[in-house]
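Minutes, project check-in

Agenda point 3 was the complex the collaborators sent over. CS summarized: two entities, 576 residues total, and the question is how they sit relative to each other. Sequences were read into the notes so everyone works from the same version.
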Amino acid sequence: MVKQISVFLQNRPGTLANLTKILLDKKINIRALTVADTSDYGIIRMIVDDPEKTLKVLKDSEYLVSETEVVAVEAQDKPGGLYEIASTLGEKNVNIEYLYTTLKEGKAIMIIRVSDIEAAIEALKSGGFKLVSEKELYE
Amino acid sequence: MKYLYWNKDVELFSREELERMQSKRLRSMVKYCCDNVRLYNERFKKAGLNPEDIKSVKDVTKIPFTFKDDLRENYPFKMFAKPLEEIVRLHASSGTSGSPTVVGYTRNDIETWTELMARTITCPGGHKGDILQNAYGYGLFTGGLGFHYGGERIGAAVIPISGGNTSLQIKLMRDFGSTILTCTPSYSLYIAEYAKQEGVNIEKEIKLRLGIFGAEPSSETLRNKIENSLNIDAFDIYGLSEIYGPGVSVECPEKNGLHIWEDQILPEVIDKETREPVSPGEKGILLFTPLTKEGVPLLRYITNDIASLNYEKCNCNREMVRMSKVTGRADDMLIVRGVNVYPSQIEHVLMGIPGVGENYQIVVDRDILDTLTVRVEVTQEKFSDRIKDLENFQRMIEERLFEALRVKVKIELVAPGEIPRSMGKAKRVIDLRKENI
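CS then shared the predicted structure for the full assembly.
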């Protein structure tokens, strides 16, 4: 289980720069990131190396911010790598809300937001997948 | 120029004849109100006034005003002067918050309104044999049914198409050969624009001759635009549901002010600040006293519309006073696609939804048709990493607002602090529509 930080951003030039400047000033490193956008706003979801500190500094700067638990799992860097993960979750009736990827030591890591995180972890474990811990991700 | 009259004897009353009739009707109306409506009974007593003190139309200024809030506070039926058994129709319009303003009509009221609408459609040139495409909304709003009854009364063939469904509007216009279009001015432009995009040759395929447009402010520029794009003569009408609905006044072919049907509706204009009568021709708040209305009689009802009155005899030979176009409002009411919207109604809905902060902003704009956007700052408790949660929240607010306002609203979710504050308070309403478009 990995903590993910989500931030509401107005769809306007400069908003991402303002946000990342705060993270830079606090020496927070972004390990993985995805942006979902609508016509009016975007939501940034990211894995950072210090979620508690990030949550605090962003709240202090009056951002709308939330913390969610997501699954980080290693995917095989070959055809069918994502298929195996997706079908394992699908068979256990776990819905994928969204996912994004990051790299670690040449390996692909899938960051997955699911409907039922306990069920997802169990399904992936028993499917023989390697779950990645927060500590491993931050290194 | 040929002028048409529905009820020529009355429509061509001299000022003297009019005032004699108004005085007589006002006397009985005041007595009727005091006898049958508690509010008036109390107000007269409080003012130390007897119904008998009102002897002629000159005494009208002694009568206390009636405000929209009086209707709201007496929701739903306490302003009715007749028992419900005598009421044959109920309409409602936007209230300032929560409850709408309810108007009940007796059979005689419907008859009077129909007569006024028959005059209103005839005056600009409508007649038996016309095909009247009625694109005003049918329902609680009085526009649709008002034109419907008046159109039938003069012997026109009424198409009760109501608002919207623009491609069907154009198809029927073409296939049925509609000659009169009745709707809001902006919707008529929208129809013209739509027809053009569909490749319709308006001059050849559309037989429209007249347009009778109301429920929205208009201007000479807008009139010219409509007349050119639909190849018609466009006329302004005015009305409000508290005073029957459409049919309070209408332009004649002179297009120089709207004749108020003064034998039935007594108009006045008062100063915005002092509430004293202004001289003829001066702008101020328009108020009306319907002179024979039975269901919900109103004395000196404050419309909050700003206009002026012109008592000069018109080239059409009518001496009934002409009101100017409405040039503004004395309160913060907005007119969006012909629908009256009070910012307080929006606030009322928003404050009833958990997760909506106190910072919101109403933005009205126009892209042929009006658009109403409410910008709402998202609160921490409603924020989610999933777009669908925010979209559901957005849609829920849109639906609640539509239910309350009966006009489509777009909700824009914004970050906290996005809405500019001045003196710690957000500027609530921004109207980007150009003055008098």
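Noted in discussion: The two ends of chain B are 29 Å apart (CA to CA).
Follow-up: revisit at the next meeting once the mutant set is ready.
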